[in-house]
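Chain A, query sequence.
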Amino acid sequence: MKWFGLADDIDDANTSADALWVAGTEGARTLALLETLQSKAPVGFGFVDRDYRRVMVNETLAAFNGSTVAAQVGRLVPDLVPLVWPSVEPLYRSVLETGEAVLGIEVDGPSQAHPEEIRHWLLSYYPVRVAGEVIGIGIVAVDNTERIRSERTHRLLATIVENSGDAIFSATTGGVVTSWNAGAESLLGYSAAEMIGRSMAVLVWNSQMPIARLSRIVAGGPTERYEGTGRRRDGTLVDVLISASASLDESGAVTGLSLIVQDISERVAAQRALEATGRRLAEAQRISGIGSFEVDPLTFEMSWSEQQYRVLGIDPTLEPSPELFMAVLHPDDVPGLTEAWRAATKTGEPLDFSYRINRADSGQQRMIKSRFQRGVGADEVTVKLAGTMQDVTDRLAAELERRTAESRFEVAFEQAGVGTAIFGLDGIPTRVNAAGCVILGRSAQELVGQSWVAFNHPDERPLGEAMAPRIVEGDDSYSAERRFLRPDGSVVWTDLHVTLVRQESGAPWYYLAQMQDITESKRIGEELAHQALHDALTGLPNRALLTDRMWRGLLGSRRRGSHLGVIFLDIDNFKVVNVSVGHSKGDELLVAAAGRIGAAIREDDTVARFGGDEFVIVCDFVSIQETMHIAERILEVMRAPFFNGSSEITATASIGIAIPDDDATPETLLRDATAAMYLAKSRGRDRVELFNDVLRARATEWMAGTSALRNGLDRGEFVVHYQPVVDLKTGFLLSAEALVRWEHPERGFIRPDDFIPLAEESGLIVPIGAWVLEQACQRLAHWQLTDPTLTVAVNLSVRQIVSPGIVDMIANALTRSNIHPSSLCLEITESVFMNDADFSGETLVRLRALGVRLSIDDFGTGYSSLSYLKRFPVDAVKVDKAFIDGLGTDPHDSALVAAIVAMADALGLVVTAEGVESSAQLNILRELQCDRGQGYYLARPMPADDMDRLVSQAHCWTVE
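Chain A, predicted structure.
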């Protein structure tokens, strides 16, 4: 059998015929397959006999040796590879002598095909035995040349990278750091262990590399470079230049990112310093107003500073040129400037020249002062002309103004209407004008050269004493109101202003004093001050002075441990007095009352007019009993008739008293005294009430209730229910009255009677009423989609009628809901007319002009109902429930209802009976031909959703 090209003798003693048959058949196939595999393998295989003759070689090993299989089989190895034989011969001999394999030996040597090229081999030699005897050497060879070269290249690059002073690192395309050199650690402060495996996001730059740049790099684009500011691990900043490029594999695919970060701090610092120097120079020129320029005398190329552009008014984006400059130069000054320019070029001496320009931006003529000088090279040839220019227009104008001012000073000084004097630093006047002489009532001879101390009012400090400390402190001016004595003994008030005039060196020179006679204005000011703190009618202290007196009294009483009493007085029925005798007589009564009160109190007590017919008396250092006695005395003097000519007027008073506690303030005292006064009125007037714990509890309850109302409005705790109004002739639904309900989160539904009075008193009825109106109008707009004839009624309180903007508020609600004004009926009570019928009537006329309908609610329970129907534009009346309750049982109620219905019918008014609670009442109302009915018998007030269903069902009541 052939194996590795050898004829092997088979030991007959050890080999049977069957074994030979197998070796000759199946074994032959196996060996043929093995020979094919090893022949094509990328690793070199071969067999050498003991004489170093190559018996077998595959194509790969033959190629390693620079020839073919046929050219190498049968030849000696030293002849085939003479260049490397000295290196491998000891290995061959070792295998043959020891019978042991030599594996993984790296051998460097020249290539047989190219002797100048050194190749790197990985060789393994092992013994081949037959019947236990080593018959040759098996060879396995791998060419590691490219791998070794690649590793050396990588090591070289790694050494270069590691020893580079720049930060060099790599990352995946997702930004995870994969390598980190010593330069990166030195520059950025992070060690390789801290950064490898972490995102580059740890490195904070002044701005991240734009997404588009990163995308271009990942796509294999060119290197991206940009400058930024990095933050080191210790937080310090460093200016850097970042270069980022793609890392590619052998196929050219992007496998990651390579980044180089260079420290450019010194270059940036130098650049910044240069820019800062330029900015400082430009700023210095801007502040000084001096521009600079340079001109090449050969090419006439010019350069200007920013300030020169400003001086000339030229657009700074334009390139400097002689034509641009000549365009603004005044034509008349062209020859002179040209000559001066030539002179400077020839002599080399600095030359100053002034000329005019017409600014390019405004056309305004300005005066310019320039200085220019030539610059020469080593050969004394002019290489440039440099100079400066400054706009001196304002300075020249100022100088002219100064000279003019000096010439005018003498005239102004002498003819000024204000007293003017010049004092030496010793305080002795050297000049005084005529106006000053008139103010002081003395001649110039009496005033000049004399100390004015003798002319000062005895209570005033001398002028010199007043000014000296201020001069020491560096003040250059002094103002004060000063009094002087005239020769006749009269006092003149002056507004004195003294200014220290300094020399150009800053040293004091003299004082300029100006004075105005303010004697009359002081008198008027004192009167105005008195008027600001006193009531114009009675001359008593007003609220402002009262508050001050109360604070003083509180502080004094707390120091002394004594009491303070505050009395609040209101004249009973004073409005009736005004109406009956007129406002002027009412004012006379107030003056007389002020006099009586002042006579009834103690000398140190304070009485003030608080407003209208209200007075407050502050009693200091007093007991509660004494305060009560003082109040009783006041009541007594007030009960006496007030005479007005032959007639007399009786006007009693209601008085409330408050005694302060430890936390009292003027505000709380007035509040408590007012509450006690109202208690006195409620108990019949002409009496005194002392504020006590009951009143305090009531006030606390009022404040808590008001706060709860306000919170309820803010939190949306109010809801609107609707009670149907029915046509008593047909049974059809005509309208619904909007009724507000309070759904308290803890107390549940609160009856209107329990919160409406509080809302009225606190004024919260205005926003609550506005909200109810808005809800009702919006709900009606929804109903009218089903029944366009339906209307809605909303109650208006007295507070709402007199509140500003009520008409506009209703008009806006109508506009937002888009309902016709006639669909809205506003129900008002007769109490609206009892406070100010004229004002209320005017408001009702304006409301009626909107097109809404007006109805008088609770008709018949107030006063002068018939006059209301006559005077005011009402459309309907609602008969109060108190009259409906007596129908059929009380003849008087039946007669009154019949009269109201008949009267309303005669006046063309619609009548609605409210409070219908039985069929008997309903039948009587129908017999009386009452138009409409409303009450529990027909329907109770219901939530808006229930009312919606009632409207959608077109519900009709049975009225037979």
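Confidence is low (pLDDT under 50) at residues 1-23. The chain is about 45% helix and 25% strand.
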